[in-house]
Protein backbone atom coordinates (compact mmCIF):
# COMPACT_ATOMS: atom_id res chain seq x y z
CA UNK A 1 0.00 0.00 0.00
CA UNK A 2 1.21 3.50 -0.87
CA UNK A 3 -0.16 4.84 2.40
CA UNK A 4 2.55 3.22 4.51
CA UNK A 5 5.31 4.97 2.53
CA UNK A 6 3.43 8.27 2.74
CA UNK A 7 2.95 7.94 6.50
CA UNK A 8 6.67 7.27 6.93
CA UNK A 9 7.61 10.21 4.71
CA UNK A 10 5.38 12.72 6.45
CA UNK A 11 6.19 11.41 9.91
CA UNK A 12 9.83 12.35 9.32
CA UNK A 13 8.80 15.79 8.00
CA UNK A 14 6.58 16.62 10.96
CA UNK A 15 9.05 15.32 13.54
CA UNK A 16 11.83 17.46 12.08
CA UNK A 17 9.52 20.47 12.21
CA UNK A 18 8.37 19.72 15.78
CA UNK A 19 12.00 19.44 16.88
CA UNK A 20 12.67 22.81 15.27
CA UNK A 21 9.75 24.71 16.84
CA UNK A 22 9.52 23.15 20.32
CA UNK A 23 11.53 25.02 23.00
CA UNK A 24 14.95 23.69 23.93
CA UNK A 25 15.60 22.25 27.39
CA UNK A 26 17.15 25.32 29.00
CA UNK A 27 16.27 28.25 31.27
CA UNK A 28 14.46 28.29 34.62
CA UNK A 29 11.50 26.43 33.08
CA UNK A 30 13.66 23.74 31.43
CA UNK A 31 11.82 20.96 33.31
CA UNK A 32 8.57 21.66 31.51
CA UNK A 33 10.38 21.79 28.17
CA UNK A 34 11.77 18.33 28.92
CA UNK A 35 8.34 17.03 29.93
CA UNK A 36 6.72 18.47 26.79
CA UNK A 37 9.36 16.98 24.51
CA UNK A 38 9.24 13.64 26.33
CA UNK A 39 5.62 13.02 25.35
CA UNK A 40 5.76 14.64 21.90
CA UNK A 41 8.69 12.42 20.89
CA UNK A 42 7.54 9.26 22.68
CA UNK A 43 6.31 7.80 19.39
CA UNK A 44 2.96 7.73 17.66
CA UNK A 45 1.58 7.58 14.14
CA UNK A 46 1.39 11.39 13.63
CA UNK A 47 -2.02 10.80 12.06
CA UNK A 48 -3.45 14.28 12.63
CA UNK A 49 -0.49 16.21 11.18
CA UNK A 50 -0.34 13.74 8.30
CA UNK A 51 -3.98 14.47 7.48
CA UNK A 52 -3.34 18.21 7.56
CA UNK A 53 -0.24 18.11 5.39
CA UNK A 54 -1.50 15.54 2.88
CA UNK A 55 -4.87 17.24 2.44
CA UNK A 56 -3.17 20.58 1.83
CA UNK A 57 -0.84 18.94 -0.70
CA UNK A 58 -3.73 17.27 -2.52
CA UNK A 59 -5.61 20.56 -2.81
CA UNK A 60 -2.80 22.96 -3.76
CA UNK A 61 0.20 20.77 -4.58
CA UNK A 62 2.28 21.80 -1.55
CA UNK A 63 2.14 20.69 2.11
CA UNK A 64 4.43 23.42 3.51
CA UNK A 65 1.77 26.13 4.03
CA UNK A 66 0.07 23.83 6.57
CA UNK A 67 3.16 22.85 8.61
CA UNK A 68 2.45 25.16 11.60
CA UNK A 69 -1.09 23.84 11.90
CA UNK A 70 0.07 20.25 11.54
CA UNK A 71 2.55 20.72 14.38
CA UNK A 72 -0.07 22.49 16.50
CA UNK A 73 -2.54 19.64 16.06
CA UNK A 74 0.05 17.11 17.21
CA UNK A 75 0.77 19.27 20.28
CA UNK A 76 -2.95 19.48 21.10
CA UNK A 77 -3.31 15.72 20.66
CA UNK A 78 -0.28 15.05 22.87
CA UNK A 79 -1.55 17.39 25.60
CA UNK A 80 -4.83 15.45 25.64
CA UNK A 81 -2.94 12.15 26.04
CA UNK A 82 -0.86 13.51 28.93
CA UNK A 83 -3.99 14.63 30.75
CA UNK A 84 -5.94 11.45 29.86
CA UNK A 85 -3.23 9.33 31.49
CA UNK A 86 -3.30 11.24 34.81
CA UNK A 87 -4.59 9.44 37.94
CA UNK A 88 -7.60 11.78 38.00
CA UNK A 89 -8.55 10.64 34.48
CA UNK A 90 -7.69 7.15 33.14
CA UNK A 91 -4.77 6.52 35.51
CA UNK A 92 -2.54 4.78 32.95
CA UNK A 93 1.08 3.79 33.58
CA UNK A 94 2.21 3.39 29.97
CA UNK A 95 1.75 5.25 26.70
CA UNK A 96 3.36 4.17 23.42
CA UNK A 97 5.42 1.59 25.29
CA UNK A 98 6.96 4.11 27.68
CA UNK A 99 6.04 5.28 31.20
CA UNK A 100 3.36 7.96 31.06
CA UNK A 101 4.39 11.57 31.59
CA UNK A 102 3.28 11.76 35.21
CA UNK A 103 5.22 8.60 36.04
CA UNK A 104 8.41 10.34 34.91
CA UNK A 105 7.82 13.99 35.85
CA UNK A 106 5.13 13.83 38.53
CA UNK A 107 1.49 14.84 38.37
CA UNK A 108 2.00 18.58 38.81
CA UNK A 109 4.59 18.91 36.06
CA UNK A 110 2.51 16.71 33.75
CA UNK A 111 -0.51 18.97 34.15
CA UNK A 112 1.71 21.92 33.25
CA UNK A 113 3.30 20.04 30.33
CA UNK A 114 -0.15 19.42 28.89
CA UNK A 115 -1.11 23.05 29.47
CA UNK A 116 2.15 24.16 27.90
CA UNK A 117 1.61 22.12 24.75
CA UNK A 118 -1.95 23.38 24.34
CA UNK A 119 -0.95 27.01 24.74
CA UNK A 120 2.15 26.67 22.57
CA UNK A 121 0.03 25.15 19.80
CA UNK A 122 -1.88 28.42 19.63
CA UNK A 123 1.34 30.43 19.68
CA UNK A 124 2.49 28.47 16.63
CA UNK A 125 -0.81 28.90 14.78
CA UNK A 126 -1.24 32.61 15.50
CA UNK A 127 2.33 33.28 14.44
CA UNK A 128 1.55 31.64 11.10
CA UNK A 129 -1.35 34.09 10.62
CA UNK A 130 1.04 37.01 10.77
CA UNK A 131 3.38 35.33 8.29
CA UNK A 132 0.67 34.58 5.70
CA UNK A 133 -1.14 37.86 5.24
CA UNK A 134 -2.00 37.14 1.61
CA UNK A 135 -4.16 34.21 2.68
CA UNK A 136 -5.12 35.48 6.12
CA UNK A 137 -8.79 34.52 5.77
CA UNK A 138 -7.85 30.88 5.18
CA UNK A 139 -5.63 30.72 8.25
CA UNK A 140 -8.21 32.47 10.45
CA UNK A 141 -10.89 30.00 9.33
CA UNK A 142 -8.56 27.05 9.97
CA UNK A 143 -7.71 28.44 13.42
CA UNK A 144 -11.41 28.74 14.25
CA UNK A 145 -12.04 25.12 13.26
CA UNK A 146 -9.12 23.77 15.30
CA UNK A 147 -10.13 25.89 18.31
CA UNK A 148 -13.70 24.62 18.22
CA UNK A 149 -12.66 21.00 17.73
CA UNK A 150 -10.26 21.02 20.69
CA UNK A 151 -12.50 22.91 23.14
CA UNK A 152 -15.71 22.50 25.11
CA UNK A 153 -17.73 22.01 21.92
CA UNK A 154 -15.29 19.38 20.69
CA UNK A 155 -12.66 17.21 22.38
CA UNK A 156 -13.06 18.55 25.91
CA UNK A 157 -16.83 18.32 25.63
CA UNK A 158 -16.50 14.68 24.61
CA UNK A 159 -14.18 13.98 27.53
CA UNK A 160 -16.72 15.51 29.91
CA UNK A 161 -19.48 13.24 28.63
CA UNK A 162 -17.07 10.27 28.79
CA UNK A 163 -16.30 10.89 32.46
CA UNK A 164 -19.94 11.41 33.36
CA UNK A 165 -20.88 8.17 31.61
CA UNK A 166 -18.55 5.94 33.65
CA UNK A 167 -20.40 3.19 35.54
CA UNK A 168 -23.59 4.05 33.65
CA UNK A 169 -25.48 2.37 30.85
CA UNK A 170 -25.48 4.89 28.01
CA UNK A 171 -27.66 5.04 24.91
CA UNK A 172 -26.58 5.35 21.30
CA UNK A 173 -26.91 9.15 21.19
CA UNK A 174 -24.65 9.61 24.21
CA UNK A 175 -22.03 7.21 22.84
CA UNK A 176 -22.09 8.90 19.43
CA UNK A 177 -21.63 12.29 21.13
CA UNK A 178 -18.61 11.01 23.07
CA UNK A 179 -16.90 9.49 20.04
CA UNK A 180 -17.75 12.36 17.69
CA UNK A 181 -16.29 14.93 20.06
CA UNK A 182 -13.59 13.20 22.09
CA UNK A 183 -11.74 11.69 19.12
CA UNK A 184 -13.37 12.38 15.78
CA UNK A 185 -13.58 16.19 16.12
CA UNK A 186 -9.80 16.74 16.11
CA UNK A 187 -9.27 14.29 13.24
CA UNK A 188 -11.95 16.05 11.21
CA UNK A 189 -10.36 19.42 12.06
CA UNK A 190 -6.97 18.16 10.86
CA UNK A 191 -8.45 17.29 7.46
CA UNK A 192 -10.41 20.53 7.16
CA UNK A 193 -7.51 22.74 8.25
CA UNK A 194 -5.29 21.30 5.53
CA UNK A 195 -8.01 21.70 2.93
CA UNK A 196 -8.87 25.26 3.90
CA UNK A 197 -5.23 26.40 4.00
CA UNK A 198 -4.73 24.77 0.60
CA UNK A 199 -7.67 26.70 -0.87
CA UNK A 200 -10.32 23.96 -1.21
CA UNK A 201 -13.64 24.86 -2.83
CA UNK A 202 -16.91 24.75 -0.87
CA UNK A 203 -17.79 21.44 -2.52
CA UNK A 204 -14.39 19.98 -1.61
CA UNK A 205 -14.78 21.16 1.98
CA UNK A 206 -18.10 19.30 2.27
CA UNK A 207 -16.41 16.13 0.96
CA UNK A 208 -13.43 16.53 3.30
CA UNK A 209 -15.74 17.05 6.26
CA UNK A 210 -17.58 13.81 5.56
CA UNK A 211 -14.26 12.02 5.07
CA UNK A 212 -12.89 13.38 8.36
CA UNK A 213 -16.01 12.49 10.33
CA UNK A 214 -16.04 8.95 8.95
CA UNK A 215 -12.39 8.11 9.55
CA UNK A 216 -12.52 9.83 12.96
CA UNK A 217 -15.36 7.66 14.20
CA UNK A 218 -13.88 4.57 12.56
CA UNK A 219 -10.53 5.28 14.22
CA UNK A 220 -12.15 5.48 17.68
CA UNK A 221 -14.19 2.31 17.21
CA UNK A 222 -11.02 0.50 16.11
CA UNK A 223 -9.34 1.78 19.29
CA UNK A 224 -12.22 0.29 21.29
CA UNK A 225 -11.77 -3.02 19.45
CA UNK A 226 -8.00 -3.08 20.02
CA UNK A 227 -8.47 -2.35 23.73
CA UNK A 228 -10.39 -5.64 23.82
CA UNK A 229 -8.43 -7.88 21.44
CA UNK A 230 -4.99 -6.20 21.25
CA UNK A 231 -1.87 -6.82 23.31
CA UNK A 232 0.42 -4.63 25.38
CA UNK A 233 3.20 -5.29 22.85
CA UNK A 234 1.02 -4.10 19.95
CA UNK A 235 -0.48 -1.04 21.61
CA UNK A 236 2.32 0.11 23.90
CA UNK A 237 -0.15 0.66 26.75
CA UNK A 238 -2.26 -1.33 29.17
CA UNK A 239 -5.15 -3.14 27.48
CA UNK A 240 -8.61 -3.62 28.92
CA UNK A 241 -8.61 -0.14 30.42
CA UNK A 242 -11.99 0.72 28.87
CA UNK A 243 -13.65 -2.23 30.54
CA UNK A 244 -11.71 -1.70 33.77
CA UNK A 245 -12.83 1.92 33.95
CA UNK A 246 -16.39 1.02 32.91
CA UNK A 247 -16.12 3.21 29.81
CA UNK A 248 -18.92 3.45 27.27
CA UNK A 249 -17.72 1.97 23.96
CA UNK A 250 -19.19 0.50 20.80
CA UNK A 251 -18.20 -2.93 22.10
CA UNK A 252 -20.01 -2.45 25.39
CA UNK A 253 -23.16 -1.30 23.58
CA UNK A 254 -23.16 -3.39 20.39
CA UNK A 255 -20.57 -6.15 20.72
CA UNK A 256 -17.45 -7.03 18.71
CA UNK A 257 -18.95 -8.21 15.41
CA UNK A 258 -21.17 -5.15 15.00
CA UNK A 259 -18.25 -2.86 15.82
CA UNK A 260 -15.98 -4.47 13.21
CA UNK A 261 -18.69 -4.17 10.55
CA UNK A 262 -19.30 -0.55 11.52
CA UNK A 263 -15.64 0.34 10.91
CA UNK A 264 -15.83 -1.21 7.44
CA UNK A 265 -18.97 0.78 6.67
CA UNK A 266 -17.30 4.02 7.79
CA UNK A 267 -14.19 3.24 5.73
CA UNK A 268 -16.28 2.85 2.58
CA UNK A 269 -18.18 6.04 3.35
CA UNK A 270 -14.90 7.95 3.73
CA UNK A 271 -13.50 6.61 0.46
CA UNK A 272 -16.65 7.48 -1.47
CA UNK A 273 -16.72 11.02 -0.07
CA UNK A 274 -13.45 11.90 -1.81
CA UNK A 275 -14.51 10.89 -5.31
CA UNK A 276 -15.55 14.45 -6.20
CA UNK A 277 -11.96 15.67 -5.77
CA UNK A 278 -10.29 15.43 -9.17
CA UNK A 279 -6.81 14.46 -8.03
CA UNK A 280 -5.10 11.08 -8.33
CA UNK A 281 -3.53 11.64 -4.89
CA UNK A 282 -6.86 10.88 -3.23
CA UNK A 283 -5.93 7.20 -3.53
CA UNK A 284 -3.56 7.76 -0.59
CA UNK A 285 -6.37 9.12 1.57
CA UNK A 286 -8.66 6.28 0.50
CA UNK A 287 -5.99 3.76 1.45
CA UNK A 288 -5.67 5.50 4.80
CA UNK A 289 -9.40 4.96 5.43
CA UNK A 290 -8.84 1.22 4.95
CA UNK A 291 -5.64 1.14 7.01
CA UNK A 292 -7.17 2.88 10.05
CA UNK A 293 -9.91 0.31 10.51
CA UNK A 294 -7.62 -2.72 10.14
CA UNK A 295 -4.54 -1.50 12.02
CA UNK A 296 -3.12 -3.54 14.90
CA UNK A 297 -1.76 -0.64 16.95
Mean pLDDT: 91
What's the main sheet like? 2 strands, antiparallel
Described by the principal axes of the CA atoms, the overall outline is: globular
Extract low-pLDDT stretches: none
Counting structural domains, the number is 1
Structural descriptors:
Farnesyl Diphosphate Synthase, mainly alpha, 73% helix, globular, 2 strands, 297 residues
Fold and architecture overview:
There is one protein chain. The protein is an all-alpha fold and 297 residues long. It has a single domain (2-292), classed as Orthogonal Bundle (Farnesyl Diphosphate Synthase). The protein contains 15 helices and 2 strands. The chain has helices at 2-21, 30-40, 47-60, 67-85, 101-105, 107-131, 136-150, 155-164, 172-198, 202-229, 232-235, 241-244, 250-254, 256-273, 282-292, and strands at residues 94-95, 98-99. Helix 6 packs antiparallel against helix 7 (136-150), helix 9 crosses helix 10 (202-229) and helix 10 (202-229) packs antiparallel against helix 14. The chain is globular, with a radius of gyration of 18 Å. The model has no long low-confidence stretch (mean pLDDT 91).
Topology:
Blueprint: H1 2-21, H2 30-40, H3 47-60, H4 67-85, E1 94-95, E2 98-99, H5 101-105, H6 107-131, H7 136-150, H8 155-164, H9 172-198, H10 202-229, H11 232-235, H12 241-244, H13 250-254, H14 256-273, H15 282-292
Helix pairs in contact: 1-3, 2-6, 3-4, 3-9, 4-6, 4-9, 6-7, 7-9, 8-9, 9-10, 10-14, 14-15
Short description:
The protein is mainly α and 297 residues long. It contains 15 helices and two strands.
Amino acid sequence: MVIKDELTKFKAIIEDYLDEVLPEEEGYQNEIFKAMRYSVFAGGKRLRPFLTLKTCEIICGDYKPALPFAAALEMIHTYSLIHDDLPAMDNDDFRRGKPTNHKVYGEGMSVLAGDGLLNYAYEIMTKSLAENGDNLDRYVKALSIVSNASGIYGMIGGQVADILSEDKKVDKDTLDFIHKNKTSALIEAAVLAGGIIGGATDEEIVALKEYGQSIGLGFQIRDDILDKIGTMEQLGKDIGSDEGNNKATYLSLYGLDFSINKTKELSNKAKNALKIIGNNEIIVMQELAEYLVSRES
